[in-house]
Specification:
Blueprint (H helix, E strand, L loop, with lengths): L4 H6 L4 H14 L5 E2 L9 H16 L1 H9 L8 H15 L8 E4 L2 H12 L1 E2 L5 E6 L18 E3 L3 E4 L4 E5 L11 E7 L11 H14 L3 E4 L22 E6 L11 E4 L2 H15 L5 H12 L1 H28 L5 E4 L6 E6 L6 H10 L2 E2 L1 E2 L17 E5 L4 H21 L1
Parallel strand pairs: 1-14, 4-5, 4-8, 7-12, 8-9, 9-10
Antiparallel strand pairs: 2-11, 3-4, 6-7, 10-11, 12-13, 13-16, 15-16
Length: 418
């Protein structure tokens, strides 16, 4: 079928498409699948209990329920929820914002589609701009959202070896040039796929660079502060008039309600709302209605700090223990897990590609995400891109343990075959 450039750019196989296809297939197949790919959060009993309480309260208030499900909201999202978010961030972090600094989108994936194409691509003066990813690997979902080709500029990290098995990526500021063709800088914090949390000093330097160049610094905080706050080290949130902070309700435990948040200066929020109106009329109202009271009271932060973060910290510690046990004798490294709910495995000099390893694991009903999809904008050859896997450890303990054992077996088999 002959389709437009838009169709050839977006309606084609992609890394994020493969990830979501795997997730859907795992849910529909009758056979057992060890789902260590995708970004599904864990089903945390205490979180679900709080959400059921919120749902019961919403159902008990007929007017609120009917408004949430039976009425289009404004294109920037529920005013009540936006006020609650602004109130929370002013009170807890001192951010000088109101509801006109916030817009909702139907999931944070749509937020990045909008923001990236606002600041990168073809300009009316004939110039072309890109999104700078100052440290890769980066989120697989960024790769294909640009409406033009050659959309990203990316920089390889420096690698700090922490001990025999742990390492950490850092921004290589010595090589970080922000050229005239950069429209915005973007980082995820914690980083998906690695669990890396950029240091406070790194964030401040990026902020200074962005302000000097007069371009936005976009911070993807889907796993970060203030909620769900899946961060295991000390880190300060950052916002000012030059930053755009993107958040999500998914990792709080509500991926099905597809609600992303964009926090920025009012001019940017107005543009996001206008694109919302064109692409989807208005954002989903159910997620905001469920969480308005939790957000306005600040209990959402307590839930994140007291329940969500400790839950994932325990799971992280256990999966690292299992990796060290099952991977004994393998030349492996683990990125120091500082946040989110992934481990990033690096098999140095792996004789097969990460895609081939992914296919072998899939044959054994273990789904992970091969590493090569996490390097958008990298133009120089780097063998590292084919030596890594992202593993989601949010699932039930027996699923994660069984999957880690099978990964170890397949990696050993690959090394032994040379």
């Amino acid at each position: 079928m002959n389709v437009s450039k838009f169709g050839k750019k977006l309606a084609v196989p992609s890394g994020i498409g493969q990830l979501m296809d795997d997730l859907g297939a795992a849910q529909s197949q009758g056979q057992e699948v060890l789902m260590l790919g995708g970004g599904n959060p864990a089903h945390i009993p205490e979180v679900h209990r709080r959400l059921r309480q919120s749902l019961a309260a919403l159902l008990a208030d007929g007017n609120r329920f009917e408004h949430a499900v039976g009425t289009y909201g404004p294109p920037e999202g529920s005013a009540e929820f936006l006020e609650a978010v602004a109130h929370l961030l002013r009170g807890r972090f001192g951010w000088d914002i109101g509801r006109h600094n916030i817009a909702l989108t139907n999931g944070s994936q749509l937020a990045f589609f909008i923001l990236f194409n606002l600041f990168a691509g073809d300009y009316e003066d004939g110039t072309k701009k890109k999104i700078l990813l100052p440290v890769i690997p980066e989120y697989i979902g960024y790769c294909d959202v640009g409406l033009t080709h050659d959309f990203f500029a990316a920089r390889r990290p420096t690698i700090e070896f922490i001990d025999e098995y742990m390492f950490k990526y850092h921004i290589d500021f010595d090589r970080l040039e922000v050229a005239a063709d950069i429209g915005a800088i973007c980082v995820s914090r914690p980083t998906n796929p690695t669990g890396n949390v950029l240091t406070n000093a790194e964030m401040e330097r990026l902020n200074e660079l962005a302000q000097t160049k007069g371009i936005p610094l976009i911070i993807d905080s889907a796993y970060g502060m203030p909620f769900p706050n899946i961060v295991f080290i000390e880190a300060r949130p950052l916002w000012n008039e030059n930053t755009i902070v993107c958040m999500s309700l998914s990792k709080v435990g509500l991926p099905g309600v597809r609600t992303g948040l964009v926090i920025a200066r009012p001019q940017i929020i107005e543009m996001v709302a206008r694109v919302n109106a064109v692409t989807s009329l208005a954002p989903n109202g159910v997620g905001p209605a469920l969480l308005t009271d939790l957000v306005h009271s600040g209990r959402i932060i307590d839930l994140a700090h007291e329940v969500i973060q400790p839950f994932y910290r325990c799971k992280m510690q256990e999966v690292v223990r299992q990796i060290h046990e099952y991977f004994d004798g393998i030349d492996y490294r683990v990125h120091q897990p500082e946040g989110a709910f992934f481990v990033w495995l690096w098999f140095r000099n792996l004789p097969i590609t990460s895609q081939q390893l992914y296919e072998r694991l899939k044959q054994r009903h273990v789904l992970v995400v091969p590493g090569q999809h996490f390097f958008p904008g990298l133009t120089e050859p780097w063998s590292h891109t084919n030596e890594c896997l992202r593993v989601n450890y949010a699932q039930d303990p027996e699923v994660v343990s069984a999957g880690i054992q099978i990964i170890a077996e397949e990696v050993k088999r690959a090394y032994d075959a040379g």
